[in-house]
Structure formats: C-alpha cells, structure tokens
Amino acid sequence: MPKKIALLFAGQGSQSVGMGCDLAEQFSVAADLFRQADEILGRKLSEIAWSGPVEELTKTSNCQPALYVHGLACFAALQAK
Q1: 18: number of CA atoms within 13 Å, CB side?
Q2: Torsions phi, psi of 4, nearest 5?
Q3: Structure confidence by residue, pLDDT tens digits, 51-77
Q4: Which of 1, 40, 42, 60 has the highest CB neighbour number within 10 Å of its CB?
Q5: In a 10 Å sphere around its CB, with 0-12 CB exposed, 13-18 middle and 19+ buried, how is residue 68 labelled?
Q6: What is the C-alpha to C-alpha distance for residues 15 and 62, in angstroms, rounded to an integer?
C-alpha cells in the first residue's frame, strides 16, 4: 500500500521577515518562484519577504501572496530533493 503524505501550509499571522530567503539561496526552483511572483505582481515581493520591514510584510496585500509563494517554494524544494 503506497504511503500517503499530507501537506499543511501556514496562514496569515505566521509570516516573518526572511521567510523563503534560505530556500531561494539553496534551491534554484524556489528562487525562480519568487522571481516569477515579482514579475507577475510587478513589484519586489521577494524583497519585502526577505528584508521587510515587518510592517510592510504584515499588510494583507503582501502577506497573502508571500505566504503562498513561500508554501510553493517549500513544496518545490521538497520535490527537488
């Protein structure tokens, strides 16, 4: 019987400045996802997620897409291993 895996992704309130930076440094697929998000949004979401300030990251308009991209980056890094 194949093993089943469940993935849980963090929600708003779990954001922190620097999230995803280590993934992007270690996994090119994660860096590519953040780069794509920057292009799609037309702004540097990666810079806000990685460098803050926390007040900017906490805004829903930044927090929600940052958490989404971070979750995708985690999943992509897991698949790349």
Answers
A1: 1
A2: -105, 140
A3: 999 999 999 999 999 999 999 999 999
A4: 40
A5: middle
A6: 10
16 vs 51: CA distance, rounded Å: 10
> Maximum CA pair distance of the chain?
48
48 φ, ψ (degrees, to nearest 5): -65, -45
Residue whose structure tokens are 């440094």 = 25
Using an 8 Å Cβ cutoff, are 63 and 1 in contact?
no
The pair of three-digit structure tokens given for residue 79, joined into one six-digit string: 């698949």
Report if pTM > 0.85: yes
SS3 43: coil
